[in-house]
Amino acid sequence: xxxxxxDTDHPAKxxxxxxxxxxxRADPEHSxxxxxxxxxxxxxxxxxxxxxxxxxxxxxGLGAWAQLKAAPAPLYFAxxxxxxxxxxxxSVLYVTxxxxxxxxxxxxxxxxxxxxxxxxxxxxGATALRPALRARLARYGRDLPQLTTRSDQLLFIVLIRVTxxxxxxVQSWTLVLAGVxxxxxxxxxxxxxxxxxxxxxxxxxSAFEGQLGVTxxxxxxxxxxxxCAAAIRARLRRTDIERPEAAxxxxxxxxx
Length: 256
What we know:
Elements: H1 2-9, H2 28-52, H3 54-70, H4 73-83, H5 90-101, H6 103-125, H7 130-139, H8 150-162, H9 168-177, H10 182-209, H11 212-242
Helix pairs in contact: 4-5, 4-6, 5-6, 5-10, 6-9, 6-10, 8-9, 8-10, 8-11, 10-11
């Protein structure tokens, strides 16, 4: 009886939640199925390219390039604005813009493209689609933190934008669905992305024109930008870890 009373007075602590059961973790079975179908698609694509032969591929490439050159700049960059909403390799579009429209013209278009795209993402993220989009990100293991202060938001935006390996569209959706403010989202996103856009546009233009020296400089610039981004990310993460948490309020003088 005494043991029962002691158990009632001191109930057992609840078990800690198992991280592997967290809904924010990617489903392993889903990942395996996705990898399987990507492999099948790759095999089919490789077989189709092999069946066409090198000459057919060359002619198709020349035809596609001729169509791109004939496209007006507004059309190309309107497509770029929409492409940034989806899993499209943005660096390829930057590299292609260089030889098509030149460095200055391309960068003059890319800046408003990034601005408009960011506004589109932010607007869509504020609609009724928000819960579905958050659930979609959770399926792929993207945890969305609770950003309660302005400094937390700024830190999170910079960390996401300088983290390598995350596609641009995933970065954008993650930031918007995490609830960051519009002003910092626009300024930091466009500013950081313009650094990479400059490197890739110059790389594409110089490689197309055979300017080896400028090409090497563009590559060095992009590598340096990546190293700087890694250093900034490490510094911000260390600062966030070392930042002391707010101490609980102590007793006031009126309590004495």
